[in-house]
Amino acid sequence: MGLKTMLLAGADERDLTKLGEYQAIGGYEQVPKARAMSSDDLIALLQAANLRGRGGAGFPMGRKASLIDRKSPKPKYLVVNADESEPGAFKDRQVMAQVPHRLIEGCLITAHAIESQDVFIYIRGEYLTEYEVLQRAVDEARAAGIFGDIEVTVYRGAGAYICGEETALLDSLEGRRGQPRPRPPFPPIQGLYAAPTQINNVCTIATVPAIIELGPDGFANVGTPGSPGTVIFSISGNVEKPGNYELELGTSMRELIYTHAGGIAGGHQLKAVIPGGSSVPALSAQQIDVPLDYDSLGAIGTFFGAASLIVVDERCCMVQLALRSTKFYMHESCGKCTPCREGTRWMVQLLEKIEAGDAELSDVDLLRNVCSRILGKSLCALGDFAVYPVSSYLEKWGEEFVAHVEHGGCPYGGESSLERIFAPSDQHTHSPVAQVPA
Amino acid sequence: MSSLTAEIREIAARYPDSRTAILPALRLAQEQNGGWLTSESFVQVGEALGLTPAYCQAVASFYDMFHLAPVGRHTVEVCTNLSCALVGAQQVVEAFETELGVAPGETTEDGEITFRAVECLGGCGYATVVAVDNRYRHFVKPEDVPAIVEDVRGA
């Protein structure tokens, strides 16, 4: 357990954005190996490796590939989700900036597995520099004849968190407002342009070359039996050395926070860790001896999520944390489903009332009630993502919410680390609607 | 055929369905129109792709990076989501307010800089993140703000 490079291997020593440098360390050698295998055998190998999705849901990547309707007369598509937007996550960005060819190599192998000739990489619009690096790498690999009959297209989003949700991403890629679709049908049956589509996160696909190289048994030697491999963990917030750390799955959270990230900054005390990006239930300081793997985090009531830890010290008011988090989800709710669209607004209003000291105890109960009316009631999980963290703050730090009511305002008295924090939804700049001529 | 129409049609030809080209087409139209989209932009994009102007506006209004009102020559965007907020993004916001004389969401009177607070930019480990014309600056502290503004104005 501990630090181990697989996705980022070689990136410290060489400029792996260059094709020649990547090939010098064995880059693209797994593509002919994979192409020598039948599609069935390659999918069986990926299933045996039990690579779990790194984007958030943790669904086994090989199993996803096995669900692709390869008999369909339609084209099959591989779509890479590079719309990294979860607050706390910044690992896909590093992979694209430093090892773009490893991602492309993973695309070529996976495309062979699902018998696809069309790969789309959907990168969030804000990642301009990373887009340029990735596009150059794609062009260089194509010019070198590595693609064969496969085409890889990098497609830029335009600023919408929801497009990281796989069916919203597909709608966006089809030139629509990025709103989630009802399921079934699931993307392996009817995805992009209603054709069978495999969708995986950047880090998932970038791990595939290592699986071909090591074989499922060699890959299983890294990490834990239920969560093999390495993961790049993003850690941010109140730690001394925030950043990305690639670790074997199963490394303890304490080791990541205190050994690698240098512990809590400025001599402060650890209060909470939001372990998977801002959308998951938070853990208290007493819970950080948990191994960082899918099953262990699930067993203590949270999610592995996007492997992105936000560390919070004792200066933070949990009502303010809940409010800022919920304003984000309210802003990013696509508006399609009523419980999420309206519920997140209710949550913000109640949290504002509590923070201002205008609430009664019944408002705290009402907040819990609203949460329960959002959870699980929409087409996608965005509404749930607003609720999970807030429910955990209510459960573990409920006395702070009550203290706001009893104290008639924030007990931190203006000293909380999130005091006055501004949110984009506070900007009343929704553009005047342009007039469309008749 | 205008050069914008020709460029959009060339992009559209790369995709299995020309509708997919709407995001790159809107981006192009925005770049060629001083950073924002007008009703005329939607007519142009719509004609190039065989879509109605209303459809193009509906798509554009969904995405944060399309502007439906005039913006400054440059944009300065400060992330105020959790990771940046926990290490002092609010102080960075306030430093920009002081330096630029405008609130988040506003443009300086000379039309040079649009200042916005934005949601997570994906630089949480390098907080506070400030994007100047979509190029990220990392570990920004309030005391760095005057130099950033000078830099933007000089660009």
Helix content of chain B: 40-55%
Distance between the termini of chain A: 65 Å
Q: Tell me the total number of β-strands of chain B.
A: 4
Specify the biggest β-sheet of chain A.
5 strands, mixed
Number of E strands of chain A: 9
- Strands across the major sheet of chain B, in which order? 2-1-3-4
Structural class of chain A: alpha/beta
Number of helices of chain B: 7
* Greatest interface: A-B, 75 and 61 residues
Average pLDDT figure of chain A? 96
How would you write the strand order of the largest sheet of chain A? 6-5-9-7-8
Count of helical segments of chain A? 16
- Poorly predicted regions of chain B: none
Low-confidence stretches of chain A: 430-438
Averaging pLDDT over every residue of chain B, what do you get?
Answer: 97
Describe how the helices and strands are arranged.
The complex is a heterodimer of chains A (438) and B (155).
Chain A: H1 19-24, H2 30-35, H3 39-49, H4 61-67, E1 77-82, H5 91-98, H6 100-113, E2 118-123, H7 128-143, E3 151-156, H8 166-173, E4 197-201, H9 202-220, E5 230-237, E6 243-248, H10 253-260, E7 270-274, E8 283-284, H11 294-299, E9 308-313, H12 318-332, H13 338-356, H14 361-374, H15 382-396, H16 398-407
Parallel strand pairs in A: 1-2, 1-4, 2-3, 5-9
Antiparallel strand pairs in A: 5-6, 7-8, 7-9
Helix pairs in contact in A: 3-4, 3-9, 5-6, 5-7, 6-9, 12-13, 12-15, 13-14, 13-15, 14-15, 15-16
Chain B: H1 3-12, H2 22-31, H3 39-49, H4 53-60, E1 74-79, H5 82-86, H6 89-100, E2 113-118, E3 130-132, E4 135-137, H7 145-154
Parallel strand pairs in B: 1-2
Antiparallel strand pairs in B: 1-3, 3-4
